[in-house]
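Please check this today:
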Amino acid sequence: MAAITALTVLAGCAGSPPQAAAMAPHAAHATATTNEGISPSFTVSGAVGKRATFDLAALQAQPAVTLTVGSNTYTGVSLWTLLNDASVGLKPDTAVRNPVLSMYAVVVGSDGYRAVVSLAEIAPESGNRMALVAYSLNGTPLGRNGMARLVMAGDVKPGRSVARLAAIEVFAAQPSGR
């Protein structure tokens, strides 16, 4: 029931993410440029100061974090850190009180698989939950799972683990009358 309510709320928001047809260029580009649909980079766009592209070298230049999920140890960059990097910079609506509470990221794989992450759940001053943009699994590259993947700490099932990362789009939910 909570999932239906969340989808209903998101569906009524101005600034909702584009529909599947609009997202297709990300998946098509990534598939066309690499083997097995593995993108050599991903973009960050939307409610950010500047659209940015990250490849493996750019990710590895960020502060590394490790996250153990079951028997696997992932190494990568905190999604929160990545979105607040000087090359990206979140762009919250300063006219809204606690603007991060209404922001979310749609993480897209090159195969079109998508997951939503609330920025409030990963913000240090709110949920402080780890969302990792991983580039290594147990000390080795991700291989068939792409150059990068999203790994969410604490999810009971890994449904939000997006492999073959192609895009991260940031949105700010708006009241329907705004």
Notes: Residues 1-35 have pLDDT under 50 and may be disordered. The CA atoms of residues 144 and 167 lie 17 Å apart. The first strand starts at residue 41 and ends at 46.
